[in-house]
Design a protein that fits this description.
The protein is of the alpha/beta class. It has 12 helices and 20 strands. The chain starts with a strand and ends with a strand. Belongs to the alanine racemase family. It is an enzyme of class 5 (isomerase).
Length: about 375
């Protein structure tokens, strides 16, 4: 026998991601303390790490961020449409079909392949295009390799329309456990970038050098250079639960996200009743009141959390499905918090689901309403 109650919250969004602006401002201030002489580029790729680019835009506008970084030209165009007038750097390279957008929207382009120099210079036709040179010094992903540097110099000397505003690299290892590798790569970056500045007869003060992501900015002051690029830690999250436990007292970053869902149904189940697909859980007490929440793995709740986690006093019962999860110990139809202060951390979600905070944030679905809380 099942006794059920349909909830009635027609005026409230069923699932809301509350992003706390005070936490973001605090985290930004912490990075300014850690790297007081460096400018800040905030990576806002992948819809601001899943938080919503448009939702967070007021934070970027009001807190004196120097540069915003994106993964592709479409994201840069979106920022321009929102009203961002400061530099926006496309960190991820570009296709030939993006060149006109780079020119039209004054996007700072990353040179990641040699062909880009000649084609971008030709398309500029007398105009000035701002570029950053991406150097691949260990990531093995995108960027100019060391054996390509002579050809790069030759191409740039024949490209008068390109203004070299910066040079950068990306660390494949950036935590304290990889200090020797990271610091060696950093020294290599400093050496090569200064060689390029000399060979191209650039003024050192006109070229912004940047290499530090969140972890290297936090742990290694040697990597700060002219600008840092704090990503995941700007939002208050670490790569793993063990990192959060080990380092957060030292750094004091504050998680910015709070996930809240309103039950779509509350029902009382009896002993032995199965819950969700494959009856992964059976009620063990005489009866249990459960809440059905209208979000699931399509919204970013990992299926691997099935039967594995408790949100406050509400254990997740049974299988996570595409659109719904079921929580035990339900009390009425009030909204239930799934993420936020006093609840299992996002990093802990990652530990249970063999994932990590970056992936979990970027998988938060578009059915979730984003709200900036100031």
């Amino acid at each position: 026998m099942i006794d059920s109650t349909q909830t009635n919250h027609d005026s409230a969004p069923p699932v809301t991601l509350r992003i706390h602006a005070d936490a973001l401002r605090h985290n930004l201030a912490r990075f300014r303390q850690l790297a007081p002489r460096s400018k800040i580029l905030l990576p806002v790729k992948a819809n601001a790490y899943g938080c919503g680019l448009q939702t967070l835009f007021p934070v970027f506008q009001k807190n004196d961020v120097d540069v915003l970084g994106v993964a592709n030209c479409n994201e840069a165009v979106e920022l321009r449409a929102l009203g961002w007038q400061k530099p926006v750097l496309n960190l991820g390279g570009f296709f030939r079909g993006n060149i006109q957008s780079i020119l039209d929207h004054q996007i700072s382009a990353s040179i990641t392949d040699l062909w880009q120099v000649n084609e971008l210079n030709a398309a500029a036709s007398g105009a000035t295009v701002r570029v950053h040179l991406k150097l691949d010094l260990g990531m093995g992903r995108i960027g100019i390799r060391q054996n390509e540097l002579p050809d790069l110099v030759s191409a740039l000397k024949a490209a008068p329309n390109l203004q070299i505003d910066g040079m950068f690299t990306h660390f494949p290892h950036s935590g304290p456990e990889a200090a020797p590798f990271t610091l060696a790569q950093n020294e290599n970056f400093v050496r090569i970038s200064h060689e390029l500045i000399n060979e191209l007869q650039l003024e050192r003060g006109s070229v912004t050098l940047h290499a530090a992501n969140s972890y290297s900015a936090a742990f290694f002051s040697q990597t700060h250079h002219d600008m840092i690029r704090p990503g995941i830690l700007f939002y208050g999250y670490y790569q793993s639960e063990s990192d959060r436990v080990q380092f957060n007292e030292r750094f004091g970053f504050r998680p910015a996200l709070e996930l809240v869902a309103t039950p779509i149904s509350v029902r009382t189940l009896r002993r032995g009743d199965g819950i969700s697909y494959a009856s992964l859980y059976h009620v063990t007490e005489e009866q249990e009141t459960v809440a059905v929440l209208p979000l699931g793995y399509a919204d970013g709740i990992p299926r691997a959390l099935s039967n594995q986690i408790t949100f406050g006093r509400h254990p997740l019962r049974g299988r996570v499905t595409m659109d719904q999860i079921i929580l035990g110990n339900a009390e009425g139809t009030s909204p239930i918090r799934l993420l936020g202060e006093g609840l299992p951390s996002l990093e802990y979600w990652g530990e249970l689901s063999h994932s990590f905070s970056y992936e979990l944030m970027s998988h938060l679905g578009n059915r979730i309403q984003r709200v900036l809380v100031d």
